[in-house]
Here is the input.
Amino acid sequence: MNIPDSFRKPFAVLIPGIGGFLAILLCSLIGDAAHASLLMAPLGASCVIAFALPQSPLAQPRSLIGGHVLSTLIGLSALAAFGVHAWSLALAVGVAITLMQLTRTLHPPAGADPLLVMLTGAGWGFLLTPVLLGAVLLVFVALAYHRATQTRYPTSWW
Here is the structure.
């Protein structure tokens, strides 16, 4: 079916929003069924990048998953080593940015992970759920969604 561009264009802005909706819905439903949280606020921001900017290097699985895992690990380590202070919060975010750049896992929403971990007093289990499993599920939803919408994603896995 040939849909005119004048009709298709206004609806094109809905596509990323629908993708984000589905990703968060599935993370929530699967998490509820498994009695585990697969959601954290930075994953909502990750949806913006994964669904609205799927060709961006920041949206690729390596960056999305790796950035969240690395930044959370830094937050957990800083919390265990230093506790919560203005300087340790700042240090954790700065180290997360630096290491994401060095490891080619730069993902801006992951910059919030050390703050989230430290301000909530999260335990080491937070690294698995919601961080790792939530990020992996988000990538798989993005992969399926972009295939269904005929958008190239990912542009690279590694």
Remarks:
- The chain has one domain: 5-148.
- The chain has seven helices and no strands.
